[in-house]
Design goal:
Layout lengths: L1 H28 L11 H8 L6 E5 L5 H9 L4 E5 L3 H10 L6 E3 L13 E4 L3 H14 L5 E5 L10 E4 L10 E6 L2
Parallel strand pairs: 1-2, 1-4, 2-3, 4-5
Antiparallel strand pairs: 5-7, 6-7
Helix pairs in contact: 2-3
Length: 180
């Protein structure tokens, strides 16, 4: 009985340690992990308009769910995700371990987007607006950018897709941009 109690205490300690590391890590990454709703995944994949040999970047990929859905929809794409939050990065690595998806734990400023044909974003507005400079500098004309919920301040969307409205207020629109 005492051994069981000790094991339980160790388990609680480890969970508390992981949780505290997650919250501390979220504080330093400037964004919490807010996964895109499963109810809108198919609409996001449709908006991405992935072709054979597309190169998809999911910047701030979270647990990798958009990349997994994209690969399921079209196996002939290259899928790359970046996630700065180390705990969430580990989750994405685990979820994508038996796929050809590449996940990196890297700051968005340090990744090259020069081969991107498609970029998916679900980030805070200030992060997206800073990224726009990098995207304009590194990406080719015709690169498709799809954002869930958040618009760029200085770029007009080429398409706005209204999604089914729910009470949670998240994922109500998809914004599609084509670099010109």
């Amino acid at each position: 009985m005492i051994l069981l109690f000790i094991l339980f205490e160790i388990f609680v300690f480890v969970i508390a340690l992981i949780a505290s590391f997650y919250f501390i890590n979220s504080f330093f990454t400037n964004a919490p992990f807010v996964p895109v709703k499963k109810r809108v995944l198919q609409q996001i994949i449709k908006a991405l308009d992935l072709k054979n040999n597309s190169v998809l970047y999911d910047l701030g990929c979270g647990d990798g769910r958009v990349l997994l859905e994209a690969i399921k929809d079209n196996e002939n794409i290259k899928a790359i995700g970046t996630e700065k939050n180390f705990i969430v990065y580990l989750l994405a690595k685990w979820r994508t371990k038996n796929t050809k998806i590449k996940i990196s734990c890297i700051d968005l400023k340090k990744i090259s987007l020069s081969d991107a044909t498609t970029i998916y974003l679900y980030l805070f507005p200030n992060i997206m607006n800073k990224l726009l400079i990098k995207i304009n500098k590194e990406c080719k004309k015709g690169t498709r950018i799809v954002s869930c919920s958040i618009q760029f301040d200085k770029l007009t969307p080429d398409e706005i897709i209204d999604l089914p409205i729910t009470k949670d207020k998240l994922c109500q629109k998809i914004f599609v941009y084509i670099l010109k």
